[in-house]
Amino acid sequence: MTDASVDYRSMWTELGMDLEGHDLLLAAIPKLYADAYLSQHDRPEGMAYFDFVMSEIHGLRIKELHDHRAAGGTVIGTFCVYVPEEIIRALGGVSVGLCAGAEWAYDQVEQVLPRNTCALIKSAMGFKMGRVCPYVESADLVIGETTCDGKKKAYELFGELAPLYVMELPQMKRPQDLELWRGELDRLVAKLEEVSGRSLTFEALQTATKEVNDKRRALQRLNAARAASPAPISGKDALLAVQVAFYDDTPRFTKMVDRIAEELEARVAAGRGVAPPDAPRVLVTGSPMSVPNWKVHDLVEKAGGVVVSEELCTGSRYYEKLVAEDATRVEGLLDGIAEKYLAINCACFTPNPGRIEDVLRLANEYKADGILSYALQFCAPYQIETTSVERAARDAGLPVLRVDTDYSMEDVGQLGTRVEAFLEMLRA
Amino acid sequence: MTDASVDYRSMWTELGMDLEGHDLLLAAIPKLYADAYLSQHDRPEGMAYFDFVMSEIHGLRIKELHDHRAAGGTVIGTFCVYVPEEIIRALGGVSVGLCAGAEWAYDQVEQVLPRNTCALIKSAMGFKMGRVCPYVESADLVIGETTCDGKKKAYELFGELAPLYVMELPQMKRPQDLELWRGELDRLVAKLEEVSGRSLTFEALQTATKEVNDKRRALQRLNAARAASPAPISGKDALLAVQVAFYDDTPRFTKMVDRIAEELEARVAAGRGVAPPDAPRVLVTGSPMSVPNWKVHDLVEKAGGVVVSEELCTGSRYYEKLVAEDATRVEGLLDGIAEKYLAINCACFTPNPGRIEDVLRLANEYKADGILSYALQFCAPYQIETTSVERAARDAGLPVLRVDTDYSMEDVGQLGTRVEAFLEMLRA
What we know:
2 copies of one chain form a homodimer. By secondary structure, chain A is an alpha/beta fold. In chain A, 55% of the residues lie in helices and 10% in strands. Chain A has helices at residues 6-14, 19-38, 48-55, 60-70, 85-90, 106-112, 119-129, 134-138, 149-158, 175-196, 202-224, 235-245, 250-270, 295-302, 316-319, 330-342, 353-365, 380-395, 412-427; strands at residues 74-78, 93-97, 141-145, 164-167, 281-286, 306-311, 370-376, 400-405. The first copy, chain A, has a 4-stranded parallel β-sheet, with helices on both faces. The first copy, chain A, has a 4-stranded parallel β-sheet with strand order 6-5-7-8, sandwiched between helices. In chain A, helix 18 (380-395) links the parallel strand 7 and strand 8 (400-405). The A-B interface holds A 112-114, 116-117, 146, 148-150, 152-157, 166, 168, 170-172, 176-177, 180, 183, 347-348, 350-352, 377-378, 380-381, 383-388, 404 and B 112-114, 116-117, 146, 148-150, 152-157, 166, 168, 170-172, 176-177, 180, 183, 347-348, 350-352, 377-378, 380-381, 383-388, 404.
């Protein structure tokens, strides 16, 4: 996916990567991307930026991280929307989401993790064990969290392979949970101060908070345009924007997304869309989707539907909530960060009525004709919560298609048939 | 398993049970019990008590619970060793472990829970949906906990079928986690005061603490005898004792177990055992085993081995730790309860080095020749932690047999072959 120039190869070697395996990986992605993305008609021009980003995903961006570290900064790897980017950034760190969206080195992974572990976790472990993710190899620290049994326990093994720090996310959202979580932020600050050799200042945290909020505001703006009919951008492209938000340079990303949003607003004003006005509109909700996991969106949109919103960690859960910017002390900003992050509605919480409300609200705002409830196999939190999502959606008169899948392509034929039948039903 | 006398049937009807389904269930268990238990040779005489208990598991014991409620007491259902019996007891409650050890009504369960949910959870939900567990039907309140994703999310659905209260067990064991957990005890007290209409007093909590400690001391004593060679009691019988500890009358149970322990001590002094001195000695560790889940113990012991210890929730995790009895105020007793329960080493914690230490220590104390690492399929915490258990055991020179299974009998043939091969290796 990048020109395998000598420069990058020496960089990858320096990072301790498995060049041979990595070559195989890099050879596979461009075709995948072309099939899913470049085959689309009438894409917003601004998406050219993401085409470029994707072509340089293991190249130029890694070089930037390398230069950032050479200039005294740190690179902090994360796997989850609950790890506060604001704090990482305020301490001179670049936050990067780690590779976890494709099958890799499963033979090695299954030596240490059960086969019936979700694809996201197996993938993350495989990219590390196979040494083909330049992000984790660039990371000064990886920050884990206790969001699910699989990750919580897999981190214990991951921590043998990479420098790891685990935050405890509570499982409820009561005042005492917020207190525990607020304490976790203090401990994270201490850990990142140690790793970075810097001290957290009010100015730095305020600036970082504003910058990360701006990134989320840009994504909000881009996504707001999708409420229009016809949809001005494909779900696949909108999903990619959020996926890239996890590892791109923050101010640059904000600028590029704002540019796309502007373009989308012009399209909406002109009534121009990427799908016909009568294309069935689908809300996707469930487990996270990491690059290059575009499977479900691809199936829906190639079958003539259009995904209009994602109630996902790589979707609304990432960008909908903002951190309060008006605090006047570090502690106040951290309070705001604690509140914002704990307010995200992941299925790891019990109970989690906020997510059901989000799904219904988004379906309404984005005029969805139906809901695709997506779960990774063996992702117990989302798989079990699907029962509640289905009930609420049906009570609201919204048809639901339940998809439990992984990263393999074996079920694409069968899934495609189910998606087509679902879209037919939505059309009727 | 009980004489289906008219008296019990009217009691079951009053509880709202499905008599037809329940008849089928009751018809199945005596054969299962006879095959596993009554077929054993030279059992301790004291086990006759447990034969009686098992024959009256849905009869006389339920009648006792009925009478207890009629006299103003409460019945509190639990699924987990982290729910403090002392507090329930001090507020006039009888704590009962709920049915979760056999497949029941899976067709109904799989309408609301994913197929790939662990057998313990599917079973608990099935017994409730099928209305064949008189314990849950007798319960004034069921207390859940956030020990794993499966239970945490399944409780949300279970709570639609039964009065439910969920305690948040933290995921680490640091001072701040103990603080959160200590707060959970205060909230549990408030909830149980509300349900029982009583107020917690120091005297009642002190008495209950001593009584529950006595129960655990009796189990400690029974289990200590198993360190002898030849083993004076089968693993199956010792397992049953802990399983029954979850729902039997506490003082009566203590007395009967003490009586068995005394008998075992005499056997040890006389060098009398239930297995030959050269029978391979196996430590079983992993997921909990609820009545009538005796599958693994049965396979090991029918193949000529003997299980000498269980590092299980239905084993050492239940009885090894005691609550401090020397506090002089309610708060002090609650502090001791919080500390004791949080010290239990379940795989739901991260990290969980204490469990590895427990496994190695027990293997040493009980002179185990090998370890059977047992996990329910889809029980991510224990399945993933098995990697660490295996490593530590192998470093200590202890062979490990890994068994991932469920409650079906489909894999018994294949498992039996693996168990036999493992015992052969231990003999060599």
